[in-house]
Structures are given as C-alpha cells and as structure tokens.
Amino acid sequence: MKELLKIRTLFVATALALSGGLVSCDDDDNPDRRMDNQMFVSEASSSNMLEIEAGRLAVSKGQREAVRMYGQHMVEDHTAVGTEMKNLATQKGWTVPTELLQKHRNQLADLQAATTNEFDRKFAQLMVDSHEEAVDLFSDAAENDDGVADVDLRNFAASKLPALRRHLEEAKELREDVQD
C-alpha cells in the first residue's frame, strides 16, 4: 500500500511539474524564458494568416469602402510577409504551420459570424487586437535578451515592426471611423 502511495505521489508530482513547465511557455509569468525559434514562427505565421483571412472577409463583407481597402491592404502586406517567413523558415529547417492556432481560429470564426451591420466594427476591433498582439510578439522576438535565439529571425522580426506599428495605427483610425 505504501509503495502504491509513493508511486501515485511521484506520478502527481511529475504531472504537476510537467504541466507547470508547459504553462510557463504559453504565458508571460516567466520573464527569464527565451522565446523558442519555432514558437515564434508558429505564433507569427498564425497571426499573419489571421490577418490575411480577416482581410479577405473584409474585402467581400465590408460595408464601408475604408474597411474593404484596409482588408485588401492586409491581404497584400501579410501575404508578402508570409512568403518571407516561409523562405526563412525553410532555410532554417523550421515548420511553418498551414492552419491557424486555436485562438486565431476562434477570432476568425467570430468575425465570420458577424452580421452585416456589425461586421465593420468587429473587423476594425480585430485588426487593433491582432496588431497589438503582433507588435508585442515581434518586439519580444527582436530583443537580444529575451528574443529568439536565431539572429536572422531576430532581424526579421525587427524589420517587420515598423510596418506592424503602422498597421496598428491605421487599424485604430479605422476603428474610430466605423464607430459612428
């Protein structure tokens, strides 16, 4: 009986230790962690695909010309970035996901479900939220201390920050325009 209790205790402790390690990779509770190269590629690629797919929806469902134009801008800019990311990842042996991460699938599904009357507002808010997330992600990756280990990937992230910040400002302006 004592042996079974020891095994069970060891199993629970191991499970807790492993789950704690996995959780710390997904959140910001561990400021000492270095972002993994593959983690960045996966997160950035999914974020990029979200903005392309949302942009396509805006082109077809947007009620306002500004929404449709911003959507087309996202499709063009983020398609080019996706191509660059794929080329770099291929050279380095990293995998570029072909599907959205669950959080991005949920955001896209919410936008797809928007009624005609609410689409423009939801799209503009999603663009603000997704670009804030992308700016944070690319900033973290570009930093030498806490960023990704690969120098080329750090440089890639740093080179994309000005455009992402510009997209964020444009998204905030769009959100203001569609609020009325």
Describe the structure concisely for a colleague:
With 180 residues, the protein is mostly helical. It is 80% helix and 0% strand.
Strand content of the residues, in percent?
under 5%
Number of domains: 2
For CATH, the homologous superfamily of the largest domain is named as Ferritin, core subunit, four-helix bundle
Radius of gyration: 20 Å
Architecture of the largest domain in CATH?
Answer: Up-down Bundle
How much is the average pLDDT? Answer: 84
Low-confidence stretches: 1-33
Protein name: Putative membrane protein
InterPro entries: DUF4142, Ferritin-like
Pfam family, one: DUF4142
Detailed description of the structure:
- Residues 37-174 form the DUF4142 domain.
- It holds the Pfam family DUF4142.
- This is Putative membrane protein.
- The protein is mainly α.
- It has two domains: 1-33; 34-178, Up-down Bundle (Ferritin).
- It is built from six helices and no strands.
- Mean pLDDT is 84; it is low at 1-33.
List the topology elements.
Blueprint: H1 2-26, H2 37-61, H3 65-92, H4 102-112, H5 116-142, H6 151-178
Keywords:
single chain; disordered N terminus; 80% helix; Ferritin; mainly alpha; 180 residues
